[in-house]
Amino acid sequence: DMTKVLLSRDVDSVSTFFPPCMLNLHQNLRRRHRLSHTQRFHYSLFLKDIGMPVEEAVGFWRAEYRLHPNGNHSCCHNWDKDEKKYMYGIRHMYGLEGCKKNYASVSCQRIQSIDNSCSEGGCPFKSFDYDKMVPLLKNCSEPVLSQISELRRKGLYTSACMLFMQNGDTMSENCDNFSFNFNPVQYYRIASKIKEA
Ligand code: SF4
User: Fold this and answer.
1) 73 alpha carbon to ligand 1 midpoint, in Å?
2) Whether the Cβ atoms of residue 48 and residue 40 lie closer than 8 Å to each other
3) Tens of pLDDT along 149-188?
4) What was the ipTM of the complex prediction?
């Protein structure tokens, strides 16, 4: 099916369909106007793969990187100062610069395998403690939260995420096969279908 074009100005409204890992990055970016290199890479690729064209990506990142983190006006990383670098970085990700590789967005397994203990990103089901995870799980009922805790204890982080996505409904598909290659882009596609239906 055709991916809908995602405009920069619509990111806040579609973020209700984001998986908790990407919602977390989005909120961090809106709050602090910066992300670390790896997290910026993961989030940009996600936005690209859910339908954001390169010119919208430039507008999206420029708007944030023109703002000063925490009101700190002496911060050295700034769009206007480093425009060339940021433009190159974005175009590179879209396969328009350098080796012209079309990067695919990262899988859940990859996100979960990175040590996120001192990082702003990661899979909340795996790397966040309960109190940091829960605010990212909007409208999650108590029974589903306790099932999620149980799956976390068993190390079944992706299954916990899928349970949250379906808000506790029984899976129609074989969850084990499905979760093996799961990634945040798939989450978004399914979640936006479920919630718009
Ligand atoms: Fe993101 Fe995957 Fe973790 Fe869900 S299981 S929060 S999609 S990394």
Assistant:
1) 34
2) no
3) 999 999 999 999 999 998 866 555 545 555 667 999 999 9
4) 0.99
User: Distance, CA 83 to ligand 1 centroid (Å)?
Assistant: 31
Q: Which residues line ligand 1 (CB under 6 A)?
A: 19-21, 108, 111, 123-125, 157-158, 161, 182, 184, 187
What count of other Cβ atoms lies within 10 Å of the Cβ of residue 156? 18
Gap between the Cα atoms of 58 and 85, Å rounded? 12
The span from the CA of 180 to the CA of 107, in Å, is: 9
